[in-house]
Design goal:
- The protein is an alpha/beta fold.
- It has 16 helices and 5 strands.
- Strands 2-1-3-4-5 form a 5-stranded parallel sheet, sandwiched between helices.
- The radius of gyration is 23 Å and the shape is flat.
């Protein structure tokens, strides 16, 4: 009988193998196997932070990629996300993940209207592992409730998460409100851009691309104290032209008008069933929402990225994207008196009808 011990795999290999096994369980909707894999990894001495970020977060990233490629449905994506959330909860209760707070106090929350809570939850759990006292408020936290919480807890900082760029105007209001009561803000999430460009634009004290970087930044020392008299218009003086406000308020009427004209231009739409009509109206509403957000930020590239991404999503689902340029043209006609909006819509048309490269990295 051999007396040699089985060689221990390098941590990176163990993490990759664990992520592969976790993906199999998550994609099969197997919650029990998922949590068992996570707890067994902790029992075997794998670092809890690595399990959170190199395994669970990596699997969640694959969930998003599979949905975008139309290899899983929205329902399957939601089920997988829910299982990953429960895996995080199970990890947080394991003895290996329990750390007594010895740093300051941080509030972690999603901005109002943001339902993608898992990125914020990952940040909260990593900060707990790093010794912070964390108040995790979860998804969709209205700014007044967030500010009330800060008054009670006297937090040293707020970590705000947003995954969808159309929530950035709301995020800006939350950032400014936190700063008005003297609490600095660190932001993160895909909404703020892959390089944090929108975090800087909206006046946040700091930005982090991921949970590890967020924890590292907070460990370096206190965030800069904010100016308590800071106003949103100070960051975005172009908002004085009111284009953002007018487009945002007109969303429903714009969608109804363009939908009606598209039905006349594309007779096949008249045969759409209720679900197809609803999805078309949703697509048009998303166009207006991203247009309004681009106007808010003064960044046309955000809109051109969204239009390119939408075309790719439609194509992955076997839906012809040729109706997008006519829809953008119709919106432009309706908004002909708004020069920034009309110019942004034209750039969207150009991206779809020329060989120009698509705009940047997904936000």
């Amino acid at each position: 009988m051999s007396t040699h011990a089985t060689p221990r795999l390098p941590d990176s290999t163990r993490l990759r193998e664990l992520a592969d096994r976790l993906w199999e369980a998550v994609s099969a909707g197997d919650e029990y196997t998922t949590t068992d894999l996570v707890l067994r990894a902790l029992d075997d001495g794998i670092d809890p932070e690595s399990v959170l970020l190199d395994v669970i977060a990596a699997v969640q990233g694959k969930v998003g990629e599979e949905w975008a490629a139309n290899r899983i449905s929205v329902a399957q994506e939601h089920a997988a996300t829910s299982i990953n959330e429960r895996a995080v909860a199970a990890l947080a209760l394991h003895p290996a993940a329990r750390t007594s707070p010895y740093r300051g106090r941080i509030t972690v929350a999603c901005v109002d209207g943001e339902w993608h809570a898992l990125p914020a939850r990952l940040v909260a759990e990593v900060l707990k592992l790093r010794g912070w006292q964390v108040d995790y408020l979860g998804a969709q936290v209205p700014a007044p409730h967030l500010i009330s919480h800060l008054h009670i807890t006297k937090a040293d900082a707020v970590a705000l998460s947003s995954s969808i760029a159309t929530r950035l105007p709301t995020a800006h209001a939350a950032i400014t409100a936190c700063q008005a009561v003297g609490v600095p803000v660190l932001v993160g999430g895909a909404a703020f851009g892959p390089d944090g460009r929108y975090a800087r634009l909206l006046g946040a004290q700091a930005w982090a691309p991921d949970a590890r970087t967020a924890a590292d930044r907070l460990a370096q020392g206190p965030l800069p104290r904010p100016q308590v008299d800071h106003q949103q218009i100070d960051d975005l003086p172009h908002l004085a032209d009111q284009e953002y406000t007018m487009v945002a308020r007109s969303r429903d009427s714009l969608v109804r008008t363009v939908f009606s004209v598209l039905e006349d231009a594309f007779p096949a739409m008249r045969a759409y069933d209720d679900i197809q009509r609803e999805r078309t109206a949703e697509d048009l509403a998303h166009i207006v929402e991203f247009l309004a957000t681009a106007l808010y930020l003064g960044d046309e590239e955000l809109f051109t990225w969204f239009i390119s991404w939408t075309a790719q999503i439609l194509q992955a689902r076997g839906v012809p994207a040729q109706s997008l340029p006519p829809a953008l043209d119709l919106f432009a006609r309706e908004l002909k008196d708004f020069p920034r909006a009309a110019r942004t819509l034209q750039r969207g048309i150009d991206v779809l009808t020329t060989d120009h490269p698509t705009a940047g990295t997904p936000v």
